[in-house]
Write the structure tokens for this entry.
Amino acid sequence: MSDTIAFNIEVYDRKLFSVICPGKEKIYGYDRYFEALQQAKEVFGFRNVYCGFVGGLEPIESIVKGIVDVAQSGFTPAINIFHADPESVFMRRPHPSTEYVWEMVQAQTAMYRKYKFYPIFSGGTRNSLDTEVYRGFFS
């Protein structure tokens, strides 16, 4: 049995969620994601429920607000950096700037320190900085 669970909302901005994640919006809905996170926290506990975002799909102010809000709610913010896969719907979408990534990671670092979060995957993934944030590489 696993002791963690993840619900990947992808984008925090409610309006962008319905545009970028139309299937998730139609089948489950924005509000129900946060209800599921809350219920999962009751089962798995503080720090063991992950809320995944994709950095670069929404304005920096929005993702930073999302990182802070989910962290304050007891959910660990996990972030993958957007990369345009060939032949995907977003294949022509620009990657986030270095400044965007830096600001996003600084917010995540602050929340990981404040709440003693740890990454869901100890080795990280190819487009995630969660492990590096946890290890303090951006301090």
